[in-house]
Amino acid sequence: MKLAIFNARPYDEAFFINCNNKIGLDLHFFEARMSLETYKLAEGFPAICVFVNDILDADVLQGLNEVGTKFIALRCAGYNNVDLTHAKELGIRVARVPAYSPESVAEYTIGLMLTLNRKIHRAYNRVKENNFDLDGFMGFDFHNRTVGVVGTGRIGFAVIRILHGIGCKILAYDIQPNPDCLALGVEYVELPELFKASDVITLHCPHTDENHHLINADSLKLMKDGVMIINTSRGGLIDTNAVVEGLKTRKVSNLGLDVYEYERPLLYQDHSNEVLLDDMFSRLLTFPNVIITGHQGFFTHDALESIAHITLENVHRFYTEEPPQNELF
């Protein structure tokens, strides 16, 4: 029962090895990302494991099929990096980790909100220079503010629970309202109303063709002047060009991103000795009211343990021909 784990970092190896003690798969770790240049490393492995920034388009899937891959285990919830239609045509099964620790991303989301609002990142640097001036650090109380939550699945609901405890008024949008949210008194509205009424907007939905650039020039026009926007979901939900214009005109007062629409070449690698060629990303970094982090909202001990456990269980079920769980078709 062999498993090739691609895009493996040292922390991945530690958690997978620890969780595998109870399952007993033959694990092989590869630092390389899955791509057209690396798929041949999967030869001899009926099952492989990949991450959110690995490439599994039609060409890569065709190559994997030729080297004998029959099962792809995603160690993440999102799957927009996989051509599922082509995988199904080739008979390659795909499973994911639909929920690991929704609280990890939810708590990180709230951390971005509070840090931006109270300028904690800037205050930290100012005090390091022995400057205790408060000028420019004025924030607002979240209590009684209206927060719009787009997507109310496990993570969205975890965010809502925290916001409810703070005392926010919560508006939500989802194609399928969550009964747990309704029980907390959350009001579901259509997107235009959410955009118009919210002081803070936070995104917690998957990225699809239908909601690509959900935040764009037109939707920004509907929003309050000075809106705060948070995205810890998927980068493609935001039109970066439009949001940069919103920052320049002060339509957007604060922007917190743990994801970025062109993040794939950047993620989980040290580029500190390189010149980044992404001009839009470089532009975002110039704004003092923008925080960008490297897709780390999931990065807690609890989440990584859960991800490793569920991923290995998915692979074990494939090999033992048990009823599938967490498969995408």
What's the number of extended β-strand segments? 12
**Strand order in space, largest sheet:** 8-7-6-9-10-11-12
Structural shape: globular
The number of helical segments is 12
Looking at the chains present, what oligomeric state does this protein adopt? single chain
Structural class: alpha/beta
Q: Radius of gyration, Cα only, in angstroms?
A: 21 Å
Strand portion: 5-15%
Task: Set down the secondary structure blueprint.
Elements: E1 2-5, H1 10-20, E2 26-29, E3 47-50, H2 58-66, E4 71-74, H3 84-90, E5 93-95, H4 102-118, H5 120-128, E6 146-150, H6 154-166, E7 169-173, H7 179-183, E8 187-188, H8 191-197, E9 200-203, H9 217-222, E10 227-231, H10 240-248, E11 252-257, H11 279-284, E12 290-292, H12 301-320
Parallel strand pairs: 1-2, 1-3, 3-4, 4-5, 6-7, 6-9, 7-8, 9-10, 10-11, 11-12
Helix pairs in contact: 1-12, 4-6
